[in-house]
Amino acid sequence: MCNCFRRGDLDTNDNVRTYHIWWRRSNHPKTFADLELQCLFDTVRAPEALDASAASSSPEHSGGDLSHRVFGVTEQCILHRHQQSAFAVSLGLTDAEARAVARRAVLVHAVYRLWCSGTSHADCAALLDSLCKAGGLKYALPKDASYFRFEQASHGKRLSMTQQQRNLQIYAKLLDHWTTVEQRTIQLSGDDVERIALLEDHELAADCGARVLVGRRLAPGGQLCPVHRYRLSARPFIGTTSMDAELAFLMANVAGIGPGQTVLDPYVGTGSILIASAVLGASQVLGSDLDRWVLYGTSHTARRRHRNGTAGRESQTKSDSQITLLRASPGRTCTTSTIEEHPANATNRVHALEARTHDRNIAQRYHILDNFRFYGIPRHQWPELVRMDLLEPAWAVPDPARPERFGWCDAIVCDPPYGIREGTRQASRACAGDSDEERTSRTMRRRRAPFAAHLEALFRLAARVLCPGGRLVFWLPAVAALTAYDLPRHASFEYIGVPCCQRMRGDLRRYLLVLRKTDRMFPSAAAASSPEVFYEEAPPHYQRAHEDLAARLFRVAERSEQLLQAPNPSRTTVPAADSGTGDAETAVP
Amino acid sequence: MRLLTHNLLICPVHKKPLAIRNVSAVDIIPVEYQPRFLLRMIPRLDWSLLRAAAVSVESDCVDALPEAAPSPSELPALEKAVESGDRLPLLDALQRLLLETHVVGGQLHCEHGEFYVIADGIPNLLADAAVNPSETASEQAACTTEGS
Question: What number is the ipTM of this complex?
Answer without folding.
Answer: 0.89
